[in-house]
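3.2 Worked example (two chains)
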Amino acid sequence: MNQRTKLRTLCKTRWSSRADAIETFKNEFPALKTLQADADEKAGQYLAAILRFKFIIALLVTEHILSSTDPLTNLLQKQVNDSLHAVCETRVVIKLCNDERADQYVWDALYDKAVDVSADFDIQPSMPRRAGRQQNRANPDVQTVSDYYRVTLYNVFLDHLVQEMETRILGNEDRYCAQHLLPSKLADLRDNILPTIYAAFAPDLPQTYETFKSEIARWRVRWSMTDIKASRLHDTLQQTCKDLFPCICTSIGVLLTMPPTSATCERSFSGMKRIKNYLQTTMTSDRLSS
């Protein structure tokens, strides 16, 4: 027991820590049986709560899916992040999730592993009784235990995860294309993406599309005449004259307000104890979140 890894607590803000915690818990799951044999009352209580097939299959499914998204989570948590690169990596993770959802062998391997873990504790795979009318839980028309958890757990989890990544990351992809306006990335700026950039920032731009194209042409010539090119949005904005390049200045300014990483947001939680100290514990959650 001294050589086993210590269980970790779930972090409310960092998904990478959650993936590590779940992986550790899955690997140390058989150790709970040893703790109960050593007359550990707390381990016995935990065993009574988690020794169910529903819990075991959910644990393995969650660990498998989070392990696929963990590299993307670490990328999004970096303090310096390229939004376009994050979008490309998000597409990779989405395709991986969709491919695994359509691959029956992936689910069969997860289910067989859950059955093997359950067999060590003499747990038989089971599913809730199917009823004609049921509104309080999932009630799909399936015949086997494997199909029940594939429909109600595995597919639902993957669909929700893919939908959230598409909405939160890919939904702003058009605005992220404005990074091509950076002087260091002007070589990758193609004419076919100019309408996309203009449409994404059209409500904030003061000029028409034709004026925007003319401004882009002058922008390219300006930075082709210098060897030192800015590579950061803030530096580019400081070197841009708003009277000469109003559309570009506005686009870069709006893009600067979009958070490319979640690291800053999560660090604010770490400093919450400085704002809400022990003398202010009577403050309710609704007021604190406002």
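3.2.1 Second chain
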Amino acid sequence: MAFPLPLWLAVQDELLRCEEDSGSGSGSGPGSGPRSCFDSFDDEALFELVHLNRPCAAFITDAVRSHLQADKSPLSVESMVLVALNYYAHGVLSTTALQKVGLNKTECLTTVVSTVSEVIAAMADQFISFPMTDDARCRVASRTKDFCGIPNLLGILAPAHFKIRASPYEINAFRSFINCQGFTSVVSQIICDCDGNILSVEKCCAGRENELDMWEASLKQKEMEEGLHGSFRLIGGHSYYKSKHVLTPVLEPSSRGEYRFNAAHGKLHNVMLAAISEMKRRFECLMQLGFAHEGSLNKKSIIIKSCCVLHNIAKKFSVPSLPVAGEIFPQWTGKQYSLGEMNPEILKVRQEVIASNFSYCDSEWDRITTEEEEQ
């Protein structure tokens, strides 16, 4: 994240104090009317409407206000943000939100949501940040090693698929959106840390796009290829077998060390799966992004990036996760390849990591396992 944690906490404390000073948290203290459309809802109703708590929604509103250029919309910034957050949370615009701001669905979808989405997506450099200094990289790698035991890692790399509808009458275009799991989608490359914070999200492609090709063409791969991040690497699924910058699991483990490495790799990779799942539960628009064609990928990318920004902000404000309701389709972990096809450089690195960090004696393994179970 671009902002240090103390600053985030200071902002959060200030918002919470403002909320307490306003009375009951609904903004309707004695002798004063609602200050904005958000204040017309109590905390529970507001959370149901936007899947965010009041301090987080207030912070987002202030951030959008500071970045929103002069707009001809008759709506206040608060009303525009309320409508957009309601759309992100449910994938449709609720009657409650529409009535509160006095707009019809057509107007909202074509103006307000797109305007707010463009503003939030443009703030990605502030709220989605890959560690770019030596100190930042060392801190992330240290925290990751404490979490899973694998050293010199900056994050988890994975493709995130988001369902769309595509016209079956345009055969070639339709086929380009059918992914390896058999449904139509767009896919974005995402990197997150061991806490589930998103560190990088790159433009979305048609669902058929190969994740290794996406990685090879990505900005982060080019940075690593140029040596910008030194000896630090990422982890990812089997699909990244050719990259010398991505540690993949051992396909056919044959030793205790390899099994232990795979367990650590899986523990970390599950953080990414959980983060994407949590983001889709909070922002249900990502469960179905509507009709798409090659010319609309940029619009889908803006929505996805906006939700990634909001995901990071929600985590910093400790917004409760939503319960699992219904099926969220599993993330594609990648086609499996034989070890002989792996990049020899990363294969050597993986063997060294296993030898140095996971090939300890059984008594040491039992001690570590016992300590983890007690924690």
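3.3 Remarks
The first strand starts at residue 153 and ends at 163.
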